[in-house]
Amino acid sequence: TKRRRAAPALRLPPGPWELPVIGSLHHIAGRLPHRAMRDLARRHGPVMLLRVGEVPTLVVSSREAAREVMKTHDVAFASRPLSATLRAMTDGGRDIIFAPYGDRWRRLRKVAVVELLSARRQTVVGSRGSCEPDKHWRRRQVGPATAAAAPMRLLKVRGWGGLNLRALEGGLGAAGDPAEVTGAGGRAGRRGRRRPGGGGRRLGRRRRRGRGIHGEVAAMLRAAAARPAFDMRAALPTLVADTTMRAAVGDRCKHRDVLLRELERCILLAGGFNPADLWPSSRIVGRLSGAVGRATACCDAVRRVLDSIVDEHLERMDMAGDGNGGGGEVEDFLQVLLKLHKDGSLEIPINMDDIKHIIFDIFAGSETSSVVLEWAMAELIRNPRSMERAAAEVRRAFASRGAVDEDALAAGELRYLRHVVPVPRGTTVLVNAWALGRDERYWPGDPEEFRPERFEDDDAMAAVDLRGADFELVPFGAGRRMCPGMPFGLALVEHALAGLLLHFDWEVPGLADPAKLDMTEEFGITARRKNGLLLRPILRVPVPGL
Ligand code: HEM
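C-alpha coordinates predicted for Cytochrome P450:
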Protein backbone atom coordinates (compact mmCIF):
# COMPACT_ATOMS: atom_id res chain seq x y z
CA THR A 1 0.00 0.00 0.00
CA LYS A 2 0.96 3.64 -0.24
CA ARG A 3 1.65 3.76 3.46
CA ARG A 4 3.96 0.79 3.25
CA ARG A 5 6.08 2.28 0.50
CA ALA A 6 6.79 5.26 2.69
CA ALA A 7 8.03 2.97 5.46
CA PRO A 8 10.72 4.45 7.69
CA ALA A 9 13.08 2.25 9.67
CA LEU A 10 13.16 1.52 13.38
CA ARG A 11 16.01 -0.36 14.96
CA LEU A 12 14.69 -3.65 16.20
CA PRO A 13 16.25 -6.73 17.77
CA PRO A 14 16.72 -9.92 15.81
CA GLY A 15 14.19 -12.67 16.14
CA PRO A 16 10.82 -13.82 14.95
CA TRP A 17 9.17 -10.58 15.78
CA GLU A 18 6.39 -10.40 13.24
CA LEU A 19 3.44 -12.51 14.29
CA PRO A 20 0.10 -12.76 12.60
CA VAL A 21 -2.33 -12.59 15.48
CA ILE A 22 -5.48 -13.11 13.45
CA GLY A 23 -5.47 -16.84 14.16
CA SER A 24 -5.01 -16.32 17.86
CA LEU A 25 -7.05 -13.23 18.47
CA HIS A 26 -8.38 -14.82 21.63
CA HIS A 27 -4.94 -14.06 23.07
CA ILE A 28 -5.83 -10.44 22.82
CA ALA A 29 -9.58 -10.28 23.05
CA GLY A 30 -10.29 -13.12 25.48
CA ARG A 31 -7.58 -12.35 28.02
CA LEU A 32 -6.12 -9.21 29.40
CA PRO A 33 -4.17 -7.81 26.45
CA HIS A 34 -1.30 -6.41 28.50
CA ARG A 35 -0.82 -9.81 30.20
CA ALA A 36 -1.24 -11.73 26.93
CA MET A 37 1.22 -9.43 25.21
CA ARG A 38 3.70 -9.77 28.07
CA ASP A 39 3.55 -13.57 27.64
CA LEU A 40 4.00 -13.30 23.86
CA ALA A 41 6.94 -10.94 24.38
CA ARG A 42 8.61 -13.49 26.68
CA ARG A 43 8.59 -15.93 23.78
CA HIS A 44 9.21 -13.60 20.87
CA GLY A 45 11.20 -10.72 22.25
CA PRO A 46 10.66 -7.19 23.52
CA VAL A 47 9.65 -5.77 20.14
CA MET A 48 6.95 -7.62 18.24
CA LEU A 49 4.95 -6.56 15.25
CA LEU A 50 1.53 -8.10 15.62
CA ARG A 51 -1.13 -7.99 12.98
CA VAL A 52 -4.25 -7.40 14.96
CA GLY A 53 -6.94 -7.66 12.32
CA GLU A 54 -5.64 -5.39 9.56
CA VAL A 55 -3.77 -3.11 11.91
CA PRO A 56 0.01 -3.47 12.22
CA THR A 57 0.67 -3.18 15.94
CA LEU A 58 4.15 -2.83 17.36
CA VAL A 59 4.26 -4.07 20.96
CA VAL A 60 7.16 -2.72 22.99
CA SER A 61 8.04 -4.48 26.26
CA SER A 62 11.57 -3.54 27.31
CA ARG A 63 12.91 -0.32 28.74
CA GLU A 64 15.42 0.02 25.87
CA ALA A 65 12.68 -0.31 23.28
CA ALA A 66 10.37 1.96 25.26
CA ARG A 67 13.16 4.56 25.32
CA GLU A 68 13.48 4.25 21.51
CA VAL A 69 9.78 4.99 21.11
CA MET A 70 9.22 7.61 23.80
CA LYS A 71 12.59 9.37 23.74
CA THR A 72 14.85 8.73 20.73
CA HIS A 73 11.96 8.75 18.23
CA ASP A 74 9.50 10.65 20.38
CA VAL A 75 8.54 13.03 17.58
CA ALA A 76 7.76 10.23 15.14
CA PHE A 77 5.54 8.55 17.73
CA ALA A 78 4.02 11.73 19.09
CA SER A 79 0.51 11.09 17.75
CA ARG A 80 -1.95 8.55 19.06
CA PRO A 81 -3.78 6.13 16.78
CA LEU A 82 -7.25 7.37 15.90
CA SER A 83 -9.39 4.32 15.34
CA ALA A 84 -12.93 4.73 13.98
CA THR A 85 -14.29 4.47 17.52
CA LEU A 86 -11.91 7.08 18.91
CA ARG A 87 -12.53 9.34 15.93
CA ALA A 88 -16.26 9.25 16.64
CA MET A 89 -15.67 9.86 20.33
CA THR A 90 -13.38 12.87 19.86
CA ASP A 91 -14.78 14.38 16.65
CA GLY A 92 -11.62 13.35 14.84
CA GLY A 93 -9.18 14.31 17.61
CA ARG A 94 -10.55 17.76 18.56
CA ASP A 95 -9.47 17.17 22.18
CA ILE A 96 -5.96 17.08 23.69
CA ILE A 97 -5.46 13.37 24.43
CA PHE A 98 -6.13 12.26 20.85
CA ALA A 99 -5.19 15.43 18.97
CA PRO A 100 -2.69 14.63 16.25
CA TYR A 101 0.77 15.93 17.08
CA GLY A 102 1.22 19.43 15.74
CA ASP A 103 0.62 23.06 16.43
CA ARG A 104 -2.99 22.74 17.49
CA TRP A 105 -2.22 19.96 20.04
CA ARG A 106 0.75 21.96 21.33
CA ARG A 107 -1.30 25.07 21.98
CA LEU A 108 -4.23 23.27 23.58
CA ARG A 109 -1.93 21.31 25.86
CA LYS A 110 -0.14 24.51 26.78
CA VAL A 111 -3.38 26.18 27.79
CA ALA A 112 -4.26 23.18 29.97
CA VAL A 113 -0.83 23.04 31.57
CA VAL A 114 -0.52 26.76 32.21
CA GLU A 115 -4.08 27.48 33.25
CA LEU A 116 -5.04 24.30 35.07
CA LEU A 117 -2.31 21.77 35.72
CA SER A 118 0.82 23.80 36.43
CA ALA A 119 2.29 23.82 39.91
CA ARG A 120 1.08 27.36 40.36
CA ARG A 121 -2.49 26.49 39.44
CA GLN A 122 -2.32 23.20 41.26
CA THR A 123 -1.53 25.06 44.40
CA VAL A 124 -4.44 27.41 43.85
CA VAL A 125 -6.74 24.53 43.04
CA GLY A 126 -5.65 22.35 45.89
CA SER A 127 -4.85 24.88 48.53
CA ARG A 128 -6.57 26.27 51.52
CA GLY A 129 -5.03 29.50 50.37
CA SER A 130 -2.00 29.39 52.60
CA CYS A 131 1.15 28.39 50.77
CA GLU A 132 3.26 30.18 48.24
CA PRO A 133 2.94 28.43 44.92
CA ASP A 134 6.49 28.62 43.68
CA LYS A 135 8.06 27.60 46.93
CA HIS A 136 5.61 24.78 47.19
CA TRP A 137 6.52 23.53 43.75
CA ARG A 138 10.25 23.84 44.15
CA ARG A 139 10.17 21.84 47.29
CA ARG A 140 8.22 19.13 45.56
CA GLN A 141 10.59 19.03 42.64
CA VAL A 142 14.04 19.07 44.12
CA GLY A 143 13.83 19.00 47.85
CA PRO A 144 14.66 15.93 49.85
CA ALA A 145 11.46 14.29 50.98
CA THR A 146 10.35 15.52 54.33
CA ALA A 147 9.49 13.13 57.10
CA ALA A 148 5.85 13.59 56.20
CA ALA A 149 6.30 12.76 52.53
CA ALA A 150 8.39 9.67 53.23
CA PRO A 151 5.52 7.29 53.95
CA MET A 152 3.89 8.26 50.69
CA ARG A 153 6.99 7.30 48.79
CA LEU A 154 6.62 3.88 50.32
CA LEU A 155 3.27 3.59 48.66
CA LYS A 156 4.35 3.97 45.06
CA VAL A 157 2.30 1.40 43.22
CA ARG A 158 4.52 -0.04 40.56
CA GLY A 159 3.18 -0.62 37.09
CA TRP A 160 0.09 1.56 37.35
CA GLY A 161 0.07 1.92 33.61
CA GLY A 162 -1.80 -0.21 31.14
CA LEU A 163 -0.89 0.21 27.50
CA ASN A 164 0.46 3.50 26.22
CA LEU A 165 -1.01 4.10 22.81
CA ARG A 166 1.08 5.82 20.16
CA ALA A 167 0.97 5.87 16.36
CA LEU A 168 3.80 6.17 13.86
CA GLU A 169 2.67 9.16 11.83
CA GLY A 170 5.74 11.06 10.71
CA GLY A 171 9.11 9.68 9.65
CA LEU A 172 11.53 8.46 12.27
CA GLY A 173 14.37 10.66 13.42
CA ALA A 174 12.68 14.03 12.92
CA ALA A 175 14.14 16.93 14.84
CA GLY A 176 12.52 17.84 18.12
CA ASP A 177 10.68 21.04 18.76
CA PRO A 178 12.49 23.03 21.41
CA ALA A 179 9.33 24.95 22.24
CA GLU A 180 7.45 21.89 23.43
CA VAL A 181 5.32 21.91 26.53
CA THR A 182 6.26 18.63 28.10
CA GLY A 183 4.23 18.68 31.23
CA ALA A 184 3.53 20.59 34.34
CA GLY A 185 6.75 19.48 35.95
CA GLY A 186 8.99 20.59 33.11
CA ARG A 187 9.61 23.77 31.24
CA ALA A 188 5.95 24.57 31.21
CA GLY A 189 5.95 24.92 34.95
CA ARG A 190 8.60 27.61 34.73
CA ARG A 191 7.09 29.31 31.72
CA GLY A 192 3.60 29.00 33.01
CA ARG A 193 3.21 32.63 33.93
CA ARG A 194 2.40 34.03 30.54
CA ARG A 195 -0.85 33.84 28.81
CA PRO A 196 -0.95 31.02 26.25
CA GLY A 197 -1.19 32.18 22.68
CA GLY A 198 1.46 34.80 23.12
CA GLY A 199 -0.82 37.52 24.54
CA GLY A 200 1.51 38.08 27.47
CA ARG A 201 -1.34 39.38 29.62
CA ARG A 202 -1.47 37.70 32.98
CA LEU A 203 -4.71 36.07 33.75
CA GLY A 204 -6.31 37.05 37.00
CA ARG A 205 -5.22 34.89 39.88
CA ARG A 206 -8.20 35.08 42.08
CA ARG A 207 -9.15 32.79 44.81
CA ARG A 208 -11.32 29.92 43.72
CA ARG A 209 -14.74 29.26 45.03
CA GLY A 210 -15.10 26.38 47.45
CA ARG A 211 -12.54 23.83 48.36
CA GLY A 212 -9.83 21.99 46.52
CA ILE A 213 -8.16 18.65 47.13
CA HIS A 214 -8.08 19.16 50.88
CA GLY A 215 -11.78 19.95 51.14
CA GLU A 216 -12.93 17.14 48.87
CA VAL A 217 -10.76 14.58 50.69
CA ALA A 218 -12.14 15.83 54.02
CA ALA A 219 -15.70 15.38 52.71
CA MET A 220 -14.89 11.81 51.66
CA LEU A 221 -13.37 11.03 55.07
CA ARG A 222 -16.48 12.33 56.83
CA ALA A 223 -18.62 10.12 54.60
CA ALA A 224 -16.41 7.12 55.45
CA ALA A 225 -16.67 7.84 59.18
CA ALA A 226 -20.45 7.80 58.96
CA ARG A 227 -20.73 4.36 57.34
CA PRO A 228 -20.22 0.82 58.61
CA ALA A 229 -18.79 -0.18 55.22
CA PHE A 230 -17.30 2.14 52.65
CA ASP A 231 -17.60 1.44 48.94
CA MET A 232 -14.27 2.57 47.48
CA ARG A 233 -15.43 1.81 43.94
CA ALA A 234 -18.13 4.45 44.28
CA ALA A 235 -16.32 6.92 46.53
CA LEU A 236 -12.97 7.28 44.77
CA PRO A 237 -14.21 8.23 41.28
CA THR A 238 -16.58 10.69 42.96
CA LEU A 239 -13.70 12.25 44.91
CA VAL A 240 -11.58 12.55 41.77
CA ALA A 241 -14.45 13.87 39.63
CA ASP A 242 -15.47 16.47 42.22
CA THR A 243 -11.91 17.69 42.74
CA THR A 244 -11.20 17.88 39.03
CA MET A 245 -14.47 19.56 38.09
CA ARG A 246 -14.02 22.13 40.83
CA ALA A 247 -10.70 23.02 39.23
CA ALA A 248 -12.02 22.88 35.68
CA VAL A 249 -15.44 24.47 35.98
CA GLY A 250 -15.27 26.14 39.38
CA ASP A 251 -17.68 23.97 41.29
CA ARG A 252 -18.92 20.47 41.83
CA CYS A 253 -20.75 19.33 38.74
CA LYS A 254 -24.38 18.45 39.31
CA HIS A 255 -24.24 16.15 36.28
CA ARG A 256 -21.23 14.34 37.68
CA ASP A 257 -22.88 10.92 37.74
CA VAL A 258 -23.95 11.16 34.10
CA LEU A 259 -20.40 12.15 33.14
CA LEU A 260 -18.97 9.26 35.18
CA ARG A 261 -21.35 6.82 33.50
CA GLU A 262 -20.45 8.07 30.02
CA LEU A 263 -16.75 8.04 30.90
CA GLU A 264 -17.09 4.41 31.93
CA ARG A 265 -18.55 3.63 28.51
CA CYS A 266 -15.84 5.61 26.72
CA ILE A 267 -13.08 3.76 28.61
CA LEU A 268 -14.50 0.38 27.67
CA LEU A 269 -14.95 1.42 24.06
CA ALA A 270 -11.54 3.10 23.78
CA GLY A 271 -9.69 0.15 25.27
CA GLY A 272 -11.73 -2.57 23.64
CA PHE A 273 -10.60 -4.37 20.56
CA ASN A 274 -13.57 -3.40 18.43
CA PRO A 275 -13.95 -5.20 15.09
CA ALA A 276 -14.62 -1.84 13.39
CA ASP A 277 -11.19 -0.68 14.53
CA LEU A 278 -9.38 -3.90 13.67
CA TRP A 279 -10.79 -4.18 10.13
CA PRO A 280 -11.09 -0.50 9.21
CA SER A 281 -11.38 -1.19 5.48
CA SER A 282 -14.50 -3.35 5.86
CA ARG A 283 -17.77 -1.43 5.80
CA ILE A 284 -19.71 -4.57 6.72
CA VAL A 285 -17.63 -5.14 9.85
CA GLY A 286 -17.99 -1.47 10.68
CA ARG A 287 -21.76 -1.61 10.41
CA LEU A 288 -22.13 -4.88 12.30
CA SER A 289 -19.81 -3.89 15.13
CA GLY A 290 -21.92 -1.00 16.44
CA ALA A 291 -18.92 0.40 18.38
CA VAL A 292 -18.84 3.59 16.33
CA GLY A 293 -22.54 4.16 16.98
CA ARG A 294 -22.02 3.62 20.70
CA ALA A 295 -19.05 6.01 20.69
CA THR A 296 -21.13 8.66 18.91
CA ALA A 297 -23.91 8.21 21.47
CA CYS A 298 -21.38 8.66 24.32
CA CYS A 299 -19.99 11.77 22.68
CA ASP A 300 -23.51 13.22 22.26
CA ALA A 301 -24.46 12.52 25.88
CA VAL A 302 -21.28 14.19 27.13
CA ARG A 303 -21.87 17.16 24.84
CA ARG A 304 -25.38 17.66 26.23
CA VAL A 305 -24.04 17.84 29.78
CA LEU A 306 -21.23 20.16 28.80
CA ASP A 307 -23.64 22.35 26.84
CA SER A 308 -25.51 23.10 30.02
CA ILE A 309 -22.32 23.73 31.99
CA VAL A 310 -21.05 26.10 29.31
CA ASP A 311 -24.40 27.90 29.08
CA GLU A 312 -24.43 28.46 32.83
CA HIS A 313 -20.90 29.84 32.67
CA LEU A 314 -21.70 32.17 29.81
CA GLU A 315 -24.72 33.47 31.67
CA ARG A 316 -22.64 34.10 34.79
CA MET A 317 -19.96 35.83 32.76
CA ASP A 318 -22.57 38.04 31.08
CA MET A 319 -24.13 38.94 34.38
CA ALA A 320 -20.81 39.75 36.00
CA GLY A 321 -19.93 42.00 33.10
CA ASP A 322 -16.23 41.84 33.84
CA GLY A 323 -15.87 38.63 31.91
CA ASN A 324 -15.14 36.63 35.01
CA GLY A 325 -18.48 35.46 36.19
CA GLY A 326 -19.25 34.49 39.74
CA GLY A 327 -19.10 38.06 41.02
CA GLY A 328 -15.54 38.71 39.93
CA GLU A 329 -14.10 36.36 42.49
CA VAL A 330 -13.36 33.30 40.41
CA GLU A 331 -11.60 32.39 37.23
CA ASP A 332 -11.76 28.72 36.46
CA PHE A 333 -10.33 26.80 33.52
CA LEU A 334 -13.58 26.87 31.55
CA GLN A 335 -13.76 30.63 31.90
CA VAL A 336 -10.21 30.92 30.62
CA LEU A 337 -11.16 28.79 27.60
CA LEU A 338 -14.34 30.78 26.96
CA LYS A 339 -12.41 34.03 27.09
CA LEU A 340 -9.78 32.67 24.72
CA HIS A 341 -12.59 31.66 22.37
CA LYS A 342 -14.31 35.04 22.63
CA ASP A 343 -11.32 37.30 22.19
CA GLY A 344 -9.64 35.00 19.66
CA SER A 345 -6.27 35.55 21.34
CA LEU A 346 -5.19 31.93 21.00
CA GLU A 347 -3.18 31.75 17.78
CA ILE A 348 -5.13 28.68 16.76
CA PRO A 349 -8.80 29.45 17.28
CA ILE A 350 -10.88 27.09 19.36
CA ASN A 351 -14.61 26.66 18.89
CA MET A 352 -17.23 25.79 21.49
CA ASP A 353 -17.10 22.07 20.67
CA ASP A 354 -13.33 22.06 21.17
CA ILE A 355 -13.84 23.59 24.59
CA LYS A 356 -16.25 20.82 25.57
CA HIS A 357 -13.82 18.14 24.39
CA ILE A 358 -11.00 19.72 26.39
CA ILE A 359 -13.08 19.88 29.58
CA PHE A 360 -14.10 16.25 29.15
CA ASP A 361 -10.42 15.32 28.59
CA ILE A 362 -9.56 16.77 31.96
CA PHE A 363 -12.42 14.86 33.54
CA ALA A 364 -11.42 11.64 31.70
CA GLY A 365 -7.66 12.05 32.16
CA SER A 366 -7.98 12.29 35.90
CA GLU A 367 -9.88 8.98 36.15
CA THR A 368 -6.53 7.22 36.52
CA SER A 369 -6.13 8.80 39.93
CA SER A 370 -9.07 6.82 41.32
CA VAL A 371 -7.75 3.63 39.68
CA VAL A 372 -4.40 4.15 41.41
CA LEU A 373 -6.04 4.88 44.76
CA GLU A 374 -8.19 1.77 44.60
CA TRP A 375 -5.20 -0.44 43.73
CA ALA A 376 -3.15 1.13 46.51
CA MET A 377 -5.85 0.48 49.10
CA ALA A 378 -6.35 -3.09 47.86
CA GLU A 379 -2.60 -3.81 47.96
CA LEU A 380 -2.33 -2.41 51.48
CA ILE A 381 -5.25 -4.50 52.67
CA ARG A 382 -3.63 -7.62 51.24
CA ASN A 383 -0.31 -6.75 52.83
CA PRO A 384 -1.02 -5.94 56.49
CA ARG A 385 2.64 -5.32 57.30
CA SER A 386 2.88 -2.63 54.66
CA MET A 387 -0.43 -1.20 55.83
CA GLU A 388 0.74 -1.13 59.42
CA ARG A 389 3.96 0.58 58.53
CA ALA A 390 2.38 3.13 56.22
CA ALA A 391 -0.42 3.97 58.63
CA ALA A 392 2.03 4.27 61.54
CA GLU A 393 4.16 6.71 59.57
CA VAL A 394 1.24 8.80 58.43
CA ARG A 395 -0.08 8.95 61.98
CA ARG A 396 3.34 9.84 63.38
CA ALA A 397 3.47 12.76 60.99
CA PHE A 398 -0.09 14.02 61.19
CA ALA A 399 -2.03 12.61 64.15
CA SER A 400 -1.05 15.46 66.48
CA ARG A 401 -2.30 17.99 63.89
CA GLY A 402 -5.58 16.08 63.54
CA ALA A 403 -5.53 16.09 59.73
CA VAL A 404 -3.23 15.62 56.75
CA ASP A 405 -1.21 18.77 56.18
CA GLU A 406 -0.90 19.65 52.54
CA ASP A 407 2.32 21.63 52.82
CA ALA A 408 4.06 18.91 54.77
CA LEU A 409 2.87 16.33 52.28
CA ALA A 410 4.19 18.29 49.37
CA ALA A 411 7.68 18.72 50.87
CA GLY A 412 8.97 14.98 49.32
CA GLU A 413 22.65 -0.57 25.03
CA LEU A 414 21.09 -0.96 22.39
CA ARG A 415 20.94 -4.46 21.00
CA TYR A 416 18.50 -2.94 18.62
CA LEU A 417 21.29 -1.91 16.27
CA ARG A 418 21.59 -5.41 14.86
CA HIS A 419 18.67 -5.32 12.52
CA VAL A 420 16.95 -2.47 10.80
CA VAL A 421 13.42 -3.45 9.90
CA PRO A 422 10.83 -1.35 8.08
CA VAL A 423 7.90 -0.27 10.17
CA PRO A 424 4.92 0.88 8.14
CA ARG A 425 3.62 4.37 8.71
CA GLY A 426 0.34 4.28 10.52
CA THR A 427 1.51 1.40 12.71
CA THR A 428 -0.08 1.42 16.14
CA VAL A 429 2.54 1.27 18.87
CA LEU A 430 1.68 -0.18 22.26
CA VAL A 431 4.21 0.45 24.98
CA ASN A 432 3.31 -2.21 27.52
CA ALA A 433 3.87 -0.10 30.61
CA TRP A 434 2.14 -2.75 32.68
CA ALA A 435 4.68 -5.41 31.59
CA LEU A 436 7.64 -3.08 32.11
CA GLY A 437 6.57 -2.47 35.70
CA ARG A 438 6.50 -6.22 36.36
CA ASP A 439 9.61 -7.33 34.48
CA GLU A 440 11.91 -9.65 36.45
CA ARG A 441 14.96 -8.09 34.75
CA TYR A 442 14.28 -4.70 36.30
CA TRP A 443 12.42 -5.77 39.43
CA PRO A 444 14.29 -8.82 40.75
CA GLY A 445 12.68 -11.01 43.38
CA ASP A 446 9.00 -11.31 42.91
CA PRO A 447 8.12 -8.55 40.48
CA GLU A 448 4.36 -8.97 40.91
CA GLU A 449 4.60 -8.65 44.67
CA PHE A 450 3.54 -5.37 46.27
CA ARG A 451 6.72 -4.35 48.03
CA PRO A 452 6.92 -0.58 48.54
CA GLU A 453 10.25 -1.06 50.36
CA ARG A 454 11.77 -1.38 46.88
CA PHE A 455 11.67 2.38 46.69
CA GLU A 456 13.38 3.04 50.02
CA ASP A 457 16.61 4.96 50.06
CA ASP A 458 18.91 2.01 50.65
CA ASP A 459 17.45 -0.08 47.84
CA ALA A 460 18.94 -0.10 44.35
CA MET A 461 15.53 0.78 42.92
CA ALA A 462 15.05 3.86 45.06
CA ALA A 463 16.44 6.09 42.35
CA VAL A 464 14.00 4.91 39.69
CA ASP A 465 12.13 7.99 38.58
CA LEU A 466 8.47 7.80 37.71
CA ARG A 467 8.47 11.06 35.79
CA GLY A 468 9.39 9.60 32.41
CA ALA A 469 13.18 9.40 32.80
CA ASP A 470 13.46 5.68 33.63
CA PHE A 471 11.64 3.51 31.16
CA GLU A 472 11.08 0.52 33.46
CA LEU A 473 8.54 2.63 35.36
CA VAL A 474 6.37 4.84 33.19
CA PRO A 475 3.03 5.24 34.94
CA PHE A 476 2.67 8.70 33.41
CA GLY A 477 4.23 7.84 30.04
CA ALA A 478 7.22 9.81 28.76
CA GLY A 479 8.24 12.35 26.16
CA ARG A 480 6.01 14.91 24.48
CA ARG A 481 2.75 13.11 25.15
CA MET A 482 3.54 12.42 28.77
CA CYS A 483 0.72 13.02 31.23
CA PRO A 484 0.40 16.74 31.95
CA GLY A 485 -1.81 15.98 34.96
CA MET A 486 0.95 14.23 36.92
CA PRO A 487 1.39 16.82 39.71
CA PHE A 488 -2.36 17.16 40.10
CA GLY A 489 -2.86 13.36 40.08
CA LEU A 490 -0.03 12.72 42.53
CA ALA A 491 -1.17 15.45 44.90
CA LEU A 492 -4.69 14.06 44.92
CA VAL A 493 -3.60 10.43 45.34
CA GLU A 494 -1.14 11.22 48.12
CA HIS A 495 -3.53 13.44 50.00
CA ALA A 496 -6.47 11.04 49.78
CA LEU A 497 -4.38 8.01 50.72
CA ALA A 498 -2.76 9.80 53.65
CA GLY A 499 -6.19 10.84 54.89
CA LEU A 500 -7.63 7.35 54.60
CA LEU A 501 -4.70 5.84 56.51
CA LEU A 502 -4.47 8.60 59.10
CA HIS A 503 -8.06 8.46 60.27
CA PHE A 504 -8.99 4.79 59.87
CA ASP A 505 -7.88 1.21 60.10
CA TRP A 506 -9.44 -0.81 57.31
CA GLU A 507 -10.87 -4.32 57.10
CA VAL A 508 -12.65 -6.33 54.47
CA PRO A 509 -16.02 -7.42 55.91
CA GLY A 510 -16.28 -11.21 55.95
CA LEU A 511 -12.70 -11.89 54.82
CA ALA A 512 -10.51 -13.43 57.51
CA ASP A 513 -7.37 -13.70 55.40
CA PRO A 514 -6.62 -10.41 53.63
CA ALA A 515 -4.16 -12.22 51.34
CA LYS A 516 -7.24 -13.74 49.70
CA LEU A 517 -8.55 -10.36 48.57
CA ASP A 518 -9.57 -10.57 44.94
CA MET A 519 -7.06 -8.73 42.74
CA THR A 520 -8.43 -9.56 39.30
CA GLU A 521 -7.68 -6.90 36.72
CA GLU A 522 -10.02 -5.63 34.10
CA PHE A 523 -9.02 -4.41 30.71
CA GLY A 524 -9.77 -0.96 29.49
CA ILE A 525 -7.57 1.88 28.37
CA THR A 526 -6.39 1.97 32.00
CA ALA A 527 -5.51 -1.14 34.06
CA ARG A 528 -8.33 -1.20 36.61
CA ARG A 529 -9.52 -3.60 39.26
CA LYS A 530 -12.29 -5.82 38.01
CA ASN A 531 -14.30 -5.97 41.20
CA GLY A 532 -15.20 -3.26 43.65
CA LEU A 533 -13.63 -2.67 47.04
CA LEU A 534 -16.00 -2.57 50.01
CA LEU A 535 -14.05 -1.85 53.19
CA ARG A 536 -14.98 -1.38 56.85
CA PRO A 537 -13.48 1.81 58.30
CA ILE A 538 -12.46 1.70 61.99
CA LEU A 539 -12.01 5.22 63.28
CA ARG A 540 -8.58 5.86 64.85
CA VAL A 541 -8.01 9.62 64.58
CA PRO A 542 -11.14 11.82 64.71
CA VAL A 543 -12.14 13.31 61.35
CA PRO A 544 -12.26 17.13 61.53
CA GLY A 545 -15.72 18.61 61.06
CA LEU A 546 -17.63 15.63 62.40
C1 HEM B 1 -2.26 9.10 39.06
C2 HEM B 1 -2.86 9.70 38.10
C3 HEM B 1 -2.56 9.65 36.62
C4 HEM B 1 -1.89 8.70 35.87
C5 HEM B 1 -1.24 7.39 36.35
C6 HEM B 1 -1.91 9.17 34.48
C7 HEM B 1 -1.33 8.50 33.41
C8 HEM B 1 -1.29 8.99 32.10
C9 HEM B 1 -0.62 8.32 30.99
C10 HEM B 1 0.15 6.98 31.08
C11 HEM B 1 -0.79 9.08 29.88
C12 HEM B 1 -0.24 8.77 28.46
C13 HEM B 1 1.20 9.28 28.38
C14 HEM B 1 1.97 8.87 27.12
O1 HEM B 1 1.37 8.58 26.06
O2 HEM B 1 3.23 8.86 27.19
C15 HEM B 1 -1.58 10.25 30.27
C16 HEM B 1 -1.96 11.28 29.41
C17 HEM B 1 -2.76 12.33 29.78
N1 HEM B 1 -3.23 12.61 31.06
FE1 HEM B 1 -2.84 11.55 32.75
N2 HEM B 1 -2.58 10.36 34.42
C18 HEM B 1 -2.99 10.70 35.71
C19 HEM B 1 -3.68 11.84 36.10
C20 HEM B 1 -4.14 12.82 35.23
C21 HEM B 1 -4.91 13.98 35.64
C22 HEM B 1 -5.29 14.29 37.09
C23 HEM B 1 -5.19 14.69 34.51
C24 HEM B 1 -5.95 15.99 34.34
C25 HEM B 1 -6.50 16.65 35.30
C26 HEM B 1 -4.58 13.98 33.37
C27 HEM B 1 -4.65 14.40 32.05
C28 HEM B 1 -4.01 13.75 31.01
C29 HEM B 1 -4.03 14.25 29.62
C30 HEM B 1 -4.77 15.51 29.10
C31 HEM B 1 -3.24 13.36 28.86
C32 HEM B 1 -2.95 13.45 27.34
C33 HEM B 1 -1.66 14.24 27.10
C34 HEM B 1 -1.33 14.39 25.61
O3 HEM B 1 -1.71 13.53 24.80
O4 HEM B 1 -0.65 15.37 25.28
N3 HEM B 1 -3.96 12.85 33.86
N4 HEM B 1 -1.87 10.17 31.62
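The chain has a mean pLDDT of 75.
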